[in-house]
Amino acid sequence: MVLTSTNTRVESLSKSGTLQIPKEYIRPQDELTTITDIFHHENNQQCPQVPTIDLNDIVSNDPKAREKCRQEIVKAATEWGVMHLVNHGISSDLINRVKAAGEGFFDQPVEEKEKYSNDIDSGNRQGYGSRLATNACGQLEWQDYFFHLIFPEDKRDLTIWPSTPNDYIPATEEYARQLRQLASKILAVLSLGLRLEEERLEKEVGGMEELLLQLKINYYPKCPQPELALGVEAHTDVSALTFILHNMVPGLQLFYNGQWVTAKCVPDSIIMHIGDTIEILSNGKYKSILHRGLVNKEKVRISWAVFCEPPIEKIILKPLPETVSEEQPALFPPRTFQQHMEHKLFRKNNETLDPK
């Protein structure tokens, strides 16, 4: 049995009993050679390990402990551009509520979720969908999602937030508030790592009033041919920072030192990516790492990604003057956030491994 409708939700494809995925989900040949069994790859102890950063001392009264924590963040942002954050200050109880709310939404029948469906063609990106943007290779991703803005509070549209389960709104609201505070702490450390005043990067990405936090709950159903598909194709995040929770099913891979490395599942952690916005402002000191999501035939994977994005037109993204010199010329041309997204969207296929 082969289903070929591109309008079908991926969850429906997964539950249809099909043994072959539609051709529009099959990756190009050059990618297929790199797709591995995610469970086998996660257990490979020989691969490099994504750094785990303990944030317990990020605002410690002990100057030495505080500086050690900050240096570890800067080192991970410089060498990897991604890290597991532990002791991040957001309680396990709240995180479990956020996860339970997202799982509860996706546990509903597809017909119920369709009441929240978005309409990308009309410019309405918020809501339930199966394809958020045009992909570089033209193929579809093995993923459904729910996407909406969660901060600042005055920019939210609660009418499109799920009413079921009933803890979805309160749990997500509180998580957004606490995550925004964590973003400020990280931006302050990254500013100091560039020898700038603590508030500088926060200001450059829009500040408390204009930095947007967008939540995308990614739902990756079981896939009958995981060796042929990707949950999300290789990309770098356009955001300033991205914070990710997941349901402890592996799937995230990072392109590090010329090879795909699988991120381990670290209990009670939040994965944080440096996005293109911070890479540009830092003139390439901090890395926006290429990454992708694999799927499997045994377990549903869910992730909660919050993208911290500057206002799309108001700020010109370019290397900060303090990061540019004769020895280190500007690596990026000036663009608005909107222009940067369009540049990435319309570049040619052979540039897909180039985050610039």
Q: Can you give a write-up of this model?
A:
- The chain has 356 residues and is of the alpha+beta class.
- The chain has a single domain (10-349), classed as B-lactam Antibiotic, Isopenicillin N Synthase, Chain (Jelly Rolls, Sandwich), CATH 2.60.120.
- The chain contains eleven helices and 14 strands.
- It has helices at 10-15, 29-32, 38-42, 63-79, 92-107, 110-113, 168-193, 200-204, 207-210, 276-281, 337-346, and strands at 52-54, 82-86, 127-129, 144-151, 212-220, 232-235, 241-246, 252-256, 259-262, 270-274, 291-293, 301-309, 316-317, 335-336.
- The strands form three sheets. Strands 1-2-10-7-12-5-4-3 form an eight-stranded mixed sheet. A four-stranded antiparallel sheet has the order 6-11-8-9.
- Strand 1 (52-54), helix 4 (63-79) and strand 2 (82-86) form a beta-alpha-beta unit.
- Helix 4 (63-79) packs across helix 7 (168-193) and helix 5 crosses helix 7.
- Its EC number is 1.14.20.4.
- Residues 215-310 form the Isopenicillin N synthase-like Fe(2+) 2OG dioxygenase domain.
- Keywords: Dioxygenase, Flavonoid biosynthesis, Iron, Metal-binding, Oxidoreductase, Vitamin C.
